[in-house]
Amino acid sequence: MAVGKKDIECPPYAEGTPLSDEDIKEGKVTYVEDHPDIRYSWTAGQAISKFLNGLKEGKILGVKCNKCGRVMVPPRMFCELCYKPIDGWVELKDTGTVETFSISYIDPDAKPLPEPVIVAVISIDGASPHMGIMHILDEVKPEDVYIGMKVKAVWKGEEEREGAITDIKYWKPVEG
Amino acid sequence: MVAIVGVGYSGFNSTTPDLSWKEIMYEAALRAYTDAGINPRRDVDSFVTCAEDIYEGFAIFDEFVPDQLGAVVKPTCTVCADFLYGVATAYMQIKSGLADIAVVESHSKASDIQTFGNVVKFAMDPIWLRNIGNAHPYYLAALEMFQYMAQRCLSEEDVARVVVKNKNNALLNPSAPYAANVTIDDVMASPKLFDPMKKMEIAPLADGCVVFVLASDEVARELTDSPVWVKGVGWWSETYGYDTASFSAMYTYKAAKMAYRMAGIENPAKEVDFAEVDDRFAFKELQHLETLQLAGKFEVARLMAEGYFDKDGSLPVNVSGGNLGVGNLLECTGGQKALEVVLQLRGEAGRRQLSDVEIGVAQAWRYLPTHSGAVAVFGV
């Protein structure tokens, strides 16, 4: 399934009549600018707290439901299909399989990125089929990525880890 | 007719550091389904959640709700409004035959918001209202309060009495984190943060979740021997903006008219046994009682002083403690009010249980800076 192995070019531009920074600075457009300062601190809760603390220790934790038999990641305190509390915690491997990916060339502000970002959905080994997380790939050329590729997590150093999804820096192909 | 056949809640707390909003929702929903004796995966036809993205800190918040409600691969929608609007939505879905059983959910995880003042400001017109001065936008309520006091010849004590009643009522509600045995002197001594509004007249923020299970007449009678009927619902918006609105809570007057007409109530002051009304600023309780037509324009304050709205008075109001005792639950405010009405009508309100109540009203405002609100009439 080497669907990613092909020549990749930049995506086409949309042609239009854009406003330039100059037009705005010169007051050609009537506008009011505001930069609201709105901040949140979302409580991680029981399940995600344990997951994030696991990442800090370099572990990926999942949960299991004995009714449907699924091992789920990211973890939750209840099985959403059986609608009952989960039955326990499982340590998963830090390897997995690329389920799908995209080679992304521009940033959220639509500016070209210096290097493309390879975003991938990765099913994690030890979890139920197709269950996993979305993350990024690196140490691989965009043209070499394919659906079904085996990958492994590259962690931040123990000192640097803070209990966040970014404690995994990226995923890289499993050698060999 | 449409009935409430199950209620569940989680909270209410000033903060909830141990649980995520999803876990709070799961707890409340599981209790509601257990109360109704249903399995959400099998029995529920429609799920309605009530949320406002900016309170949650997520865009397109409705995407985040199915799992914890048991609503995965089921019809789900979010109403961007208070819980009582969700009750109205579920009511219509059931009356139209789209659903036999519908679930309504709303929650507050206000403790996740770090800059609440700026969230309220974000609801103001960015061009000519938002950036006038640098005061915390609670002054918007004080503007309305001062005009209301002037028009109704109210003293500061008249407003302070609402705080005394509700915080003391809350002492009998184990789910009211802001209960206190305060006296009128305590309230009068509270600092004026937004003159003439005092600190104690402002409901502090709280966390919690309320879930209701609604069912059609036929299904309700199969599920329970003691349904609480949704007799009437109403909602209404006046106009946008502090420069054009009437400052007279017309939204409640009109929403109540709509709900009372549905419920066949002609004289609310005589026919309604008790009410839970929005008191997120103390003066709002007086204004809302007037516009709910539960007392005459110039009588509300006098009746309040005489104990008419006390828990042992003729028409108990905010027996739960109201928002001043329970807290500001954002879009779940109407949820807490409807919950209290249902518990009272079922005789399950514990030590604050009222005797001989058959018709109760729940009312919620959409909070600052709006002139919108909803009313629901429940009965047994």
- CATH fold label of the domain at 2-114 and 205-223 in chain B: Peroxisomal Thiolase, Chain A, domain 1
| Strand line-up in the sheet with most strands of chain A | 8-7-6-9-10
Largest sheet of chain A: 5 strands, antiparallel
Note the run of SSEs of chain A as H and E.
HHEEEEEEEEEE
| The CATH top-level class label of chain A | Mainly Beta
| Percentage of residues in helical conformation of chain A | under 10%
Describe the 3D structure.
The complex is a heterodimer of chains A (176) and B (380). In chain A, the strands form 3 sheets. Chain A has a 5-stranded antiparallel beta sheet, with no helix packed on it. A 3-stranded antiparallel beta sheet of chain A has the order 2-1-5. In chain A, strands 3-4 form a two-stranded antiparallel sheet. Chain A has a single domain (43-173), classed as Nucleic acid-binding proteins (OB fold (Dihydrolipoamide Acetyltransferase, E2P), Beta Barrel), CATH 2.40.50. Chain A has helices spanning 21-25, 45-56; strands spanning 60-64, 71-72, 78-79, 84-85, 88-92, 95-106, 112-124, 132-137, 150-155, 168-173. With 176 residues, chain A is mainly beta. The radius of gyration of chain A is 21 Å and the shape is extended. The longest helix of chain A has 12 residues, at 45-56. Chain B is an alpha/beta fold. Chain B has a domain at 2-114 and 205-223: Thiolase/Chalcone synthase (Peroxisomal Thiolase, Chain A, domain 1, 3-Layer(aba) Sandwich), CATH 3.40.47.10. In chain B, the strands form 2 sheets. In chain B, strands 3-2-4-7-1-8-11-10-9 form a 9-stranded mixed beta sheet. In chain B, helix 8 (156-169) crosses helix 13 (282-291) and helix 8 packs across helix 14. The termini of chain B are close together. The chains are: A mainly beta (176), B alpha/beta (380). Chain A binds chain B through residues 32, 34, 36-48, 76-78, 80-83, and chain B through 16-23, 26, 30, 39-41, 54, 57, 66-68, 70, 72, 109, 111-115, 118-119, 121-122, 126-127, 130-131.
